[in-house]
Amino acid sequence: QVQLVESGGGLVQAGGSLTLSCTASERTFSSYAMGWFRQAPGKEREFVAAISMIGGSTVYASSVKGRFTISRDNAKNTLYLQMNSLKPEDTAVYYCAGRKYTIARLTTEYDYWGQGTQVTVSS
Fold it and tell me: What does the pLDDT read at residue 2?
């Protein structure tokens, strides 16, 4: 059972930056494709970004492309999301998720989830 723990959320002004981290308990972290999702109040959880097992491939939602960067450090069992030029509409609970082997965009394709970390962007 893979356990994922997010950190790094907080309150930031519009235009600011935050970096989220997600630490995995699994020693075979490099066997998992990883993703970031977010859920705003009253909305469904949505895809943000995903990265392949060794980080060679990444995909992004159009709403964050060019502003967010997903990366991973397999030696540290850690996933990151660097968020720049934040907007009030980026306000949400951010979740990291993992699945074996291949990148995916749908929440239903991920097997393991963290508890989430709140990001609030003030205008």
Answer: 86
CB-neighbour burial class of residue 54 (10 A; exposed 0-12, middle 13-18, buried 19+) = exposed
3-state secondary structure of 75: helix
Query: What whole-number distance in Å separates Cα of residue 73 and Cα of residue 55?
Result: 8
Query: Per residue in 16-41, pLDDT tens?
Result: 999 999 999 978 899 999 999 999 99
- C-beta of residue 22 within 8 angstroms of C-beta of residue 9: no
Q: Which two tokens stand for residue 20?
A: 């989220």
Instruction: State the DSSP code for 39.
Output: E
Q: What is the pLDDT of residue 7?
A: 97
Give CA–CA dist 110/107, Å, rounded: 6
Burial of residue 70 (CB within 10 Å: 0-12, 13-18, 19+) is buried
Residue given tokens 């968020």 in the structure block? 83
pLDDT of residue 101: 87
List the one residue out of 2, 51, 56, 53 whose CA is nearest residue 30. 53
Q: What CA–CA distance (Å, rounded) separates 104 from 117?
A: 21
